[in-house]
Fold this protein.
Amino acid sequence: MNKIAIFIILGVFALVALIYFSFDGLLQNRDLPGAESIQIDKTWKLPILLEEVSGISWIDEERIACVEDEEAILFIYNTKTSKIEKQIAFGEDGDYEAVAIVNKDAYVLRSDGTLFELLNYTQDSLEINEYATGLPAEYNFEGLCFDKKYNRLLLAIKDKASKTSKPIFAFNLKTKKVEKKPAYEIKFDDPKFKSLGQKINHQIIRPSEVAVDPKNGDIYVLEATNPKLLILNSNGNIKKIIILKEEQFPQPEGLTFDSSGNLYISNEGAGSLGTILKVTLDKNE
């Protein structure tokens, strides 16, 4: 009987392990080779309400817009006082992943690809519009930013869309529709991916955020699963891959630039307080 019990227990553990390892993205190798220590210029520890901060967008010299995973609230965080200055409710609870500020308006991305437009978001007379992108919800949308040069929003997806590349879609702010052809495609067979020592498939890059450098137009793609940062040129080709140390970036979900080209990365709390880090990168090839 004891042997039977032991075999049953071992079988249960084996089954659990199989499920755990098979679940897409649940268990990832977070110790990629070549991790770099990034210069952190300033750290803001966020209030408990932003423990699960999932997206950030620069507003001005004192304010950063934030969203978190579960509530339909746009948080205005003051970097001078280190406090939430304002909370703007815009809908029902859901999985909100990213935010982009466009002049006086704000756009929030839900993981199913739905976009929420908050017109004159700082005013009491708030008007809210909702746009269905028409793209599959299983893409698991996580990244959003304003691409000023082309007057569009860039939308990055986390999960599988193609066997050969991961697209970044464009939402035209004039027509309020997603353009049929992706703005960029990250090719899985790009030689720069070989240095990661990972299997070449759609999990080689699972974007958690996207941003455009206002100085040179480079596109930055952040990943939280295996923390790394891709720098793409204006044609979408990979210029550099920066592997982020987990000690500095335990769960990097948000990415934004200020008007001077300074870079900010936010981390979910993962059991502690969320953070926003102002960072300096070595951009040399």
Notes: The chain is about 5% helix and 45% strand. Residues 57 and 101 are 6 Å apart (CA to CA). Residues 16-29 have pLDDT under 50 and may be disordered.
